[in-house]
Amino acid sequence: MSKNLKNVLVTGFALFSIFFGAGNLIFPPTLGFISGDKWLWTAFGFLLVCISLPLLGIVSVALVGGRTEDLTNKVGKSFGTILCSVIMLSIGPLFCIPRTGATTFELGVQPLFGNASPILVSIIYFSITFIFAVNETSVVDKIGAILTPFLLVSLFIIIFKGIITPLGSPVNTGLENAFSKGFTEGYQTMDALGSIIMAQMVVGDLILKGYKTRKDQINMTIKAGIVSAICLGTVYGGLLYIGATSSGIFPKDTARTGLLISITQGLLGDWSKIIFGGAISIACLTTSIGLTATAANYFSKLSKERVSYKSLVLAICVFSCFISNYGVETIIKLAVPVLVTAYPVVIVLIITSLLSKYINKREIYAGAVYGALIVSIFSSLSSIGIKISFVENIINKLPFASQGFSWVLPALIGAVIGAVIQGTENRVQSTEHR
């Protein structure tokens, strides 16, 4: 095996590990379940967000210099700091970390011990997270290295069984706008948000492997991305399909974790809740420890070490412990306003950065981003029941609004306005120099 091929495979599996979170497994089966016979359209939207956007996010960071700040600071340094902080809070103590604890309880503990206290379980769970994260031990990495392949084998068995002997057939569930449903549900994995944070680590690893030029880094990232995409597509696509085959079997109001338990038990029997639930629980714990350490490191550096790493680890664990007791479904609902606001901004940043060869002025980046941000803020307010009638009417008339992409035209208009401002400034400067 050549050195390049080996590095492509190693980096590809590393990318897969970064984006593959045990807590994310609850989304594809539910999407398939509510989509029924439209599951292919939903899968297309979901996989676009969960596979294509994260990989493009890493490529875009590599294109603009290899650091997260090189991407976010194109709009402005203060904006970049705020955006990175919001993303880090989202993939950290606000949503992702608490969701791992809630998922562990609902998938790993509750099916085996029906009377278990969620408060006690979360205290134990986040105490373990604290012990490992505060000491920055490598033990958890070794556990993850053993457990992730085991979890993957379990998933492939479930998917294979679900395809060969499905629980049922996909039925018409009456879902409209299946593509946009899959696209916006993909926000909940937060992979695209995390990609622009993790990209710096991926590019740094490629540099250590000897790929010094930007061209080589981008080339390796794309090839490794294909490896990662195949793995992610197989897992997410397979889970979506087996969810669709159960669309006519279980009650429509079945919770996400309950659906995954019911499907695995239906395919593999009662013993699956012990092995599969246990594997997911430990995988969630490794994710929790990794995200806690990452978030604590980020905010400690942001404070210029005025707030210590250990203090932040403690604060994150305590806060996450509290939030996790609200349960998976509530945490998902709490995340919606933040994700509806942040995702369009990150998507626009990624796309414009991929076009950085043609866009070389901050005004264009800023115009596109702020155009999307204005609309996404109002969409976010609407998602929590705060509606401003005349603004709602305008947004609803925008192209693609019914599909959930009302921010597209404002982003384009913002980019044009930025280009006009840039052109005006250039003409003024040219006149002054005469």
TrEMBL record:
Q: Which residues cross the membrane?
A: 7-27, 39-66, 78-100, 112-134, 146-167, 187-208, 220-242, 274-299, 311-328, 334-355, 367-388, 400-421
Sample GO molecular function, one term: L-valine transmembrane transporter activity
Extract the Pfam families matched here: Branch_AA_trans
Its GO CC terms?
A: plasma membrane
Tell me yes or no: is Kinase among this UniProt entry's keywords.
no
Membrane topology type, per the record?
Multi-pass membrane protein
Q: Does the keyword Chloroplast apply?
A: no
| Entry keyword set | Amino-acid transport, Cell membrane, Membrane, Transmembrane, Transmembrane helix, Transport
- Alphabetical list of InterPro entries matching this protein: Brnchd-chn_aa_trnsp_Livcs
User: Can you cite a GO biological process for this protein?
Assistant: L-leucine transport
The places in or outside the cell where this protein is found are: Cell membrane
Lineage, top-rank taxon, reads Bacteria
**Family indicated by similarity:** Belongs to the branched chain amino acid transporter family.
- Function field: Component of the transport system for branched-chain amino acids.
- Annotated NCBIfam families: livcs
This protein is called Branched-chain amino acid transport system carrier protein
Q: Which organism is it from?
A: Clostridium liquoris
What gene name is given for the protein in this entry? Answer: brnQ_2
